[in-house]
Amino acid sequence: MRMGCRRWIFNARGPRKETPARATMPPATFRCWQLACMRLQRSGSSASPSLSNCHRTRNARAVSQTWCAWQSQRSPPTPVFCSTNVLNRISLVRDASASGVDVALKAISLFTGVGGLDYGFEAAGFGTEVALDIDPVACHTLRLNRPWRVLEKPIKETTAEELLDESRLLPRQADVLIGGPPCQPFSKSGYWARGSASRMEDPRAETLQGYLDILEGTLPRVFLIENVPGLNYRGKNEGFEAIQRGIDAINERRGTSYRISVAALNAASYGVPQLRERVFIVGSREGAKFRFPRPTHRLPFRPDSDQGLEPCRTVWDAIGDLPSALNDAELGMRGKWADLLPTIPEGQNYLWHTDRGGGLPLFGWRRRYWSFLLKLSKSLPSWTIQAQPGPATGPFHWSNRKLSAVELGRIQTFPDGLTYDCRHADVQRLVGNAVPSALGELLAREISYQLLGCAKIVAPLSLIPMKRGDIPEPEPIAPLPAKYASMVGEHEDHPGTGKGYRATGWAAAAVTG
């Protein structure tokens, strides 16, 4: 029988566990239950979970699920599970951690950033024992929002012993090591900038070795690495090959059996309201094979082969309930093209103003980057949130402005209620570099079930936004400002993939060099 994270069901007398055996609750679980009772009291409810019907659990997640279901429906006649919009979508595990309660599943987090991946693991019942990041703004933001131990230093100056000491763990005691090493060398821009040269020669790629060094020193039961798809491009996958060689060396030196599973996942395929593709590598110390979950939501612009899946979540689902942020000066458009954005419809970019679009021909087809003057559509998922966008780099709100901090977090499926004490540009950078939390929650659930021996959670992901009602009509577009009239005319199209300036530039340099 699988031990650990068990489901809870409810009847008119209160919650009871699916298994008939009853036992005294351990102190950690009892404290979690107390927290649930306090939450009920604060909400003004006269109901309270019955302690006499409690059952032993090794994981605070089960208590969190109990709270969620009890809060959403008091005495349902049939089994129910976590609501998707309870307590501002913040897991009770956070409160348990803040109160000193021992969370059973323990994570060590590297390159934590603002914590997007960690919030997902938190929602699945993991506790971040220690978080490491070099960015002072990211570390400050983590400390504002969670009681985690945070180390603010480069990974190359950090030892596994230091992380274990901070997390109060011994080697092999951590359940999971998670992190996404900086991805600039493996991005599309890095691909074209370096040409045929190995991207492992980029100094920023040293963080991969830093991750492997910590992995060898901590020897967690499971590890997860997140990165851009370019880490594992066909014929250009030196980053993935370096990881594979490193894992083989660790297995040989330490007697482990880490086995790698790798997949490129699009977050929108799993209910995240954002088209964002990333590579995930998961390894089990015992050699168990990890099977990545199948898509649950159909992507837009796909053929009928995706029928049978849920409709994708849209930007309107994520932020449609938020008040307008038009009065925030930091969100206003700036730069040369600021007054051109209002002339572009929702869901379109600069291509609207080409000879193949519906506007006036101001640009050549595909002569600009895709996110140039890119505007969100209420009826579609967001395009990938950028970390360091230029003044004309989208996606922009349909109200012709930048996205607010709360809107950015919603699109990344962060839990509500996060605090930022920094400039909006820093918020954009932190959020744009993060992993969507709901995707982290999904992978954490699968890891706990497949590789850590916990019972499978059948509840919907707690961080996915609910589907909203009727989507409002698109915003009207503005007429073209007179200053652009001189640009109207014929423009040369882009010559094709691999024939643009960057591609031909490094090829010519390779020949002449």
From TrEMBL:
<dbReference type="InterPro" id="IPR001525">
    <property type="entry name" value="C5_MeTfrase"/>
</dbReference>
<keyword id="KW-0949">S-adenosyl-L-methionine</keyword>
<feature type="active site">
    <location>
        <position position="183"/>
    </location>
</feature>
<keyword id="KW-0680">Restriction system</keyword>
<dbReference type="GO" id="GO:0003677">
    <property type="term" value="F:DNA binding"/>
</dbReference>
<dbReference type="GO" id="GO:0032259">
    <property type="term" value="P:methylation"/>
</dbReference>
<dbReference type="InterPro" id="IPR018117">
    <property type="entry name" value="C5_DNA_meth_AS"/>
</dbReference>
<keyword id="KW-0808">Transferase</keyword>
<dbReference type="InterPro" id="IPR050390">
    <property type="entry name" value="C5-Methyltransferase"/>
</dbReference>
<dbReference type="InterPro" id="IPR029063">
    <property type="entry name" value="SAM-dependent_MTases_sf"/>
</dbReference>
<dbReference type="GO" id="GO:0009307">
    <property type="term" value="P:DNA restriction-modification system"/>
</dbReference>
<dbReference type="Pfam" id="PF00145">
    <property type="entry name" value="DNA_methylase"/>
</dbReference>
<dbReference type="GO" id="GO:0044027">
    <property type="term" value="P:negative regulation of gene expression via chromosomal CpG island methylation"/>
</dbReference>
<comment type="similarity">
    <text>Belongs to the class I-like SAM-binding methyltransferase superfamily. C5-methyltransferase family.</text>
</comment>
<dbReference type="GO" id="GO:0003886">
    <property type="term" value="F:DNA (cytosine-5-)-methyltransferase activity"/>
</dbReference>
<keyword id="KW-0489">Methyltransferase</keyword>
<protein>
    <recommendedName>
        <fullName>Cytosine-specific methyltransferase</fullName>
        <ecNumber>2.1.1.37</ecNumber>
    </recommendedName>
</protein>
